[in-house]
Amino acid sequence: MPTPRTRKTTSDTEEKIPATTVGTEPADATEDKAAPGDTETNIPEAVETKAPDVAPLEPPTDLEPIPEPELLTTAQQLLPATIGDRVEDEATGQPPTDPDAVFVPVPPYGTTFRCTVRLIEHVGMGAYNTPATRLLVPVGAQLKRQQMERVVARLHAQLAAAE
Length: 163
Fold this sequence. Notes:
Elements: H1 10-16, H2 27-30, H3 75-78, E1 86-89, E2 103-105, E3 112-115, E4 119-125, E5 130-137, E6 142-144, H4 145-162
Antiparallel strand pairs: 1-4, 2-3, 3-6, 4-5
């Protein structure tokens, strides 16, 4: 029967390592090699550091105004390439009953439309189509006519499929 293996302990390793004492280094390595007639040791001269000639940085007295964020108006900023399967109003949790009333023209008879409700969409994201909810159009977003027509057409198709 083989003998069981045992772990080495610190006492085993201490016996194998030779003990060293502090201060037993050769004297030639610790002393500076000075000429036999010199009584002074080699001490480097103190180097004086100079302060910079420039003034320290101070905060500016006139603060620049913070620019207002740009309105989200382009299709790349607002609408995804494909609109999700289920679009609904976030406040009610249901699709809008009148899709044509979701957008109103900004100037009367204009080409820019403002959204009156916060539209969200439920989509599947990732490789496993993990369900997610994302903002489609925020309240007050200004869309061009083509973008507005895409969203309204999707809302109409969604209402037609529900009936």
